Amino acid sequence: ITGVIGLVFLVLALYTLTKKRIIKCCTLSVLSLGFICSSLIILLLGINLHTYHRLTKEVPIANIQFWQTGPQQFLAVLSHADGINEQSYMINGDEWQIDARVLKWNPTAILAGLDSRYRLERLSGRYRNIEQERYDQRSVFDLSAEPGLELWPLLIRLQNYLDWIDAYYGNSVYLPMADQAAYQIVLTQSGILSRPDNEQARHAIASW
To answer: What is the mean pLDDT of residues 30-34?
Structure first.
């Protein structure tokens, strides 16, 4: 709106200039410049806010909750954000880890509306003690569905030709397990991360 008003004043200024009304022309020119500058500032602020929203966007992709069934043994229930798929796993250890493949776009593509893509690959347990990690029973589960068309190798081949692909990489997060602890897993424009979703999880992290 301010841009339109500025253009109206600009037209009036040009009209008064043809009538040789110099003072009125200068006044209208100043008003026109002010409105046009204001509209540009508003536009730039809008672009900046849009950039901030796009570059910090977080999308929930899964939730996981644990119930302790024995020493260093937990029942984990992983549910996807769509609520359709829910799976249970017995995990040994002190911490849980989830691995994913992430396709990250460059900032221009993000601003154009493209969001990072992901595929969850593995859920596993971790022992804090390195000797246990080496010799005790491990628990690793495959999370990747068998796709009809494997897109990832195609994207890798095209990565050198598509400027809007910024990076393609493996991404992991791990956090402590505790009885009834729940976590939310989210996808950001730079990869996956996880946050505590209840008091038990927050307490587990605080004493980690």
So the answer is: 60
Which H/E stretch holds residue 166? strand 165-176
Asked if residues 168 and 104 have their Cβ atoms less than 8 Å apart, the reply is: yes
- What is the rounded CA–CA span in Å between residue 142 and residue 38? 55
Q: Residue 128: which pLDDT band, with cuts at 50, 70 and 90?
A: very high
Neighbours of 90 (CB within 10 A): 13
Our measurement of the distance from residue 83's CA atom to the centroid of its chain's CA atoms, rounded to an integer in Å, reads 20
**CA pair distance 138, 158, nearest whole angstrom:** 36
Spell out a b/e string for 94-106, using b for 16 or more CB atoms within 10 Å of the CB, else e: bbbbbbbbbbbbe
Q: Work out the mean pLDDT of the chain and round it to a whole number.
A: 76
Straight-line distance from the first to the last Cα atom of the chain, in angstroms, rounded to the nearest whole number: 55
pTM of the entire structure?
0.67
Tokens 């494997």, located at residue:
150
CB atoms within 10 A of CB 179: 12
